[in-house]
From TrEMBL:
Organism of derivation: Raphanus sativus
Pfam family, one: Trypsin_2
SUPFAM superfamilies: PDZ domain-like (SSF50156), Trypsin-like serine proteases (SSF50494)
Any one GO MF annotation of this record: serine-type endopeptidase activity
Entry annotated with the keyword Lipoprotein: no
Gene: LOC108821650
Entry protein name: Protease Do-like 11, mitochondrial
Ranges where the Protease Do-like PDZ domain occurs: 409-499
GO biological process, one term: proteolysis
Keywords from the UniProt entry: Hydrolase, Protease, Serine protease
Length: 505
């Protein structure tokens, strides 16, 4: 063992014949080398610590470019609790809890995603928690816009705002630039995710029928990161809101700023605009010649203008939109955006506030015209409308009827979502989930219409034609007498939802 340790003290290869000769010639040199190696062994603990520190510094080096020190204190965890209504048993609710991220902005407010704090019904509760704290502060949703998936929270607590500084909103990050996402993906610790800006795209957001700009980064963002700030050089350049295994989406700051400064009459009103028209690209040379376009002209062909559009009665079908506010529209319906990128021309309209105007240059029958169009807000998405109302239902003979889709109150598919077991409906158990096509041979338009057809029935037997040619027949009076017993058995207060009892819109 002693010899082995001695060998460790002597420089590698020292016991070769050449170095053995050196030992005899210059023992002082050998002693110096041995002492040097002995010192290294005696200080091995310090060396190990230095090595560990160097490795830690190397691991932390990429994060040094991310100014997260004091910024992390402005990022909060959000707790959302709601009792959501069941779609098949609409009189029942079920607990729904989720977490997300938000961050402080000017005016003592918290910015987050709309889907983090969905205002579903009166049972909703939202709380926020500061970094390093166990206290959950009650929050109020001051403003929400589902089409851009953003919401603003207010916290009425001086204690909460102590040491909380608002984050500054920056511009659009350059392509291939590294950005850092801050959020509470898991637990109560802030997770920092690094990603490179990959692209700019115009797509529909989660709860929107409107195409808005989004930034794609090559990083995975977990669910809890939703609503978290995306940082570049001390400023927020986006808000995290959707993610996948290979990339994630950010809401760019122009959209964020537009939402924050948007003038709304109510929390549900849209802050984005739309021309309200359908169109097609016009690249083909033959169609260009047909509409008398010169070789230097680019634009899009208007196919239809919606009745609610501010352009209705001003622009016309077959007009070619050449430019919007002086910005030429390309044949593929895009306009210049950022760093030689191009996005949908709708961006020029969306970033304006309802009531503002836009100058539209069109080609009509070979002549150019310019029109000032008063812009209208985008129409709310169907799913957004559902957040703010109880689901519709009607119960007869233990059969629970609900609308298959709320796309239109005038035209709905109605189906049997549940069958509350009773002697009156025995033998019809397999009819669950079937669509109701007719009541007493009258085609069903929507759920309200179905309820009216049943309530106004004057026949001894009521019949329903279902999908797959199934037929349902009930003794009307017997079913009516059974309903109160069935409702009481299932603790249901009413056989019909309130929205069906009032006047039809």
């Amino acid at each position: 063992m002693l010899v082995r340790n001695l060998r460790a003290l002597v420089p590698r290869g020292f016991f070769s014949s050449h170095h053995s000769c050196d030992v005899r010639i210059n023992p002082v040199t050998v002693a110096g080398r041995v002492f040097s190696n002995l010192s290294a062994i005696l200080n091995v603990g310090n060396n190990d610590r230095s090595t560990v520190e160097e490795k830690q510094n190397r691991r932390m080096k990429p994060k040094e470019t991310c100014p997260v020190g004091s910024l992390k204190n402005s990022v909060v965890k959000i707790f959302f609790v709601s009792r959501d209504y069941s779609r098949t048993r609409p009189w029942e609710t079920r607990a729904k809890r989720r977490t997300g991220t938000g961050f402080a902005i000017s005016g003592k407010r918290i910015l987050t995603n709309a889907h983090v704090v969905e205002i579903l019904n009166e049972h909703t509760s939202v709380h926020v928690q500061k970094r390093g704290s166990t206290i959950e502060y009650k929050a109020k949703v001051q403003k929400i816009a589902h089409e851009c998936d953003l919401a603003i929270l207010e916290i009425d607590s001086q204690e909460f705002w102590k040491g909380m500084k608002p984050l500054e909103l920056g511009g659009i990050p350059p392509l291939k630039k590294a950005v850092f996402v801050l959020g509470y993906a898991t637990g109560n610790r802030i997770r920092i995710t690094k990603g490179l800006v990959a692209s700019f795209e115009t797509e529909k957001y989660l709860h929107s029928d409107t195409e808005l700009v989004r930034i794609q980064i090559d990083a995975t963002i977990k669910n809890g990161n939703s609503g978290g700030p995306v940082i570049l050089e001390n400023k927020v350049v986006g808000v995290a809101f959707e993610g996948s295994q290979i990339q994630s989406s950010l809401i760019p700051t122009p959209i964020v700023k537009h939402f924050i400064t948007g003038d709304e009459e109510s929390d549900q009103q849209s802050v984005f605009c739309s021309l309200g028209l359908s169109y097609q690209s016009i690249k083909n040379a033959q169609i260009r010649n047909h509409f008398k376009m010169s070789s230097t002209m680019t634009g899009i062909l208007i196919n239809k203008i919606n009745l609610w559009s501010g352009a209705y009665g001003v622009l016309k079908k077959n007009d070619i939109i050449l430019a919007i506010d002086g910005v030429p529209v390309a044949d593929d319906a895009t306009v210049p955006f950022w760093e030689n990128e191009r996005i949908s021309f709708n961006y020029l309209i969306l970033i304006k506030k309802p009531g503002e105007t836009s100058l539209i240059k069109v080609l009509r029958r070979g002549k150019e015209h310019e029109y000032s169009i008063n812009l209208k807000p985008v129409k709310p998405h169907v799913r957004v409308q559902q957040y703010y109302k109880r689901p519709s239902y009607y119960i007869f003979g233990g059969f629970v009827f609900v609308p298959k889709s709320d796309i239109s109150k005038c035209e709905q598919h109605v189906f049997i979502s549940e069958i509350l077991a009773d002697d009156i409906n025995q033998g019809y158990e397999s009819f669950k989930d079937l669509q109701v096509e007719k009541v007493n041979k009258v085609k069903v338009k929507n759920l309200r219409h179905l309820s009216e057809l049943i309530e106004e029935n004057r026949k001894q037997y009521l019949s329903m034609d279902l999908e797959d040619d199934k037929v349902l027949v009930l003794n009307y009076e017997s079913a009516k007498k059974a309903d109160p017993i069935i409702l009481k058995r299932h603790n249901i207060t009413s056989a019909i939802s309130k929205d069906l009892t009032g006047p039809s819109n």
